[in-house]
């Protein structure tokens, strides 16, 4: 990844956070970046314990912090390169603490376990909250598909943010010798666009011409400007689907991708511009690790 100096890894001592930490260490070694590790004890847990325990028992928070540090020593000993990394414990709402530390430290990349549901789909509420709020790139690592990555999907909607997503995908592919799929999801003429009158059907010839124009635009948009992009030789894919986020998620699963890279805002439609609904849908349905990239401004 470009311009990567600092990485923050959130750990909860699960298999998912172990995969996240291993991935962060891999990336840090490529870029000679600095890693910090953060475990957050939820404030509600502290309050509940204090209410349950005798008033004579003091220092619940101190004991929890000490226990977390002890757990970290055992946890980090099982992960190559983790021992000796700066480790911090926060007592707060987890999302708030992670996002605040990213802001305070001007962190370039936040890495968390993806978690998700029992079927290996989607990401945790914490991961989704951090994607929405963190002022950094966010990688959510699925422990069933850790790096090195083999197939990386870069989501292209012709925004500058999606160009950044492509650059990140290519940078990772260069390190892992992976294949990059540059994917654009399109609603074909006549499918939900008022521009095309429902009174007049769109011929297959017109649809084919439209596809060809989009493919040309996609290839031009992804035209190599960097030696890494030339080397990667992205595979260009036009996906016809009525929903952009669902189309991406289905392609990711069908292609057995290991990582999907996308911007958190784009130009797909007005709703996406305001809410980032494409990213929301991908986060909900993705079956692989996810890297999100924010606009530069």
Describe the protein.
The chain has 297 residues and is an alpha/beta fold. It has helices spanning 15-31, 43-52, 60-77, 94-105, 125-133, 160-176, 204-221, 227-232, 244-254, 270-275, 277-285; strands spanning 6-10, 34-41, 87-91, 109-113, 137-141, 151-155, 179-186, 235-240, 259-263, 289-293. A ten-stranded mixed beta sheet has the order 3-2-1-4-5-10-9-6-7-8, sandwiched between helices. Helix 1 (15-31) links the parallel strand 1 and strand 2. Helix 9 runs parallel beside helix 11. It is elongated. It starts with 5 loop residues before the first strand and ends with a strand. Mean pLDDT is 84; it is low at 193-197 and 266-275.
Reported for the largest beta sheet, the result is: 10 strands, mixed
In percent terms, what proportion of residues is strand? 15-25%
Q: What sequence of helices (H) and strands (E) makes up the elements? A: EHEHHEHEHEEHEHHEHEHHE
Give me the count of strands.
10
Query: Helical stretch count?
Result: 11
Distance between the termini: 19 Å
Secondary structure class reads: alpha/beta
Radius of gyration: 21 Å
Averaged pLDDT: 84
Residue stretches low in confidence (pLDDT < 50, at least 5 long) are: 193-197, 266-275
Can you list the strand order of the major beta sheet?
3-2-1-4-5-10-9-6-7-8
Shape: elongated
Query: How much helicity do the residues have?
Result: 40-55%
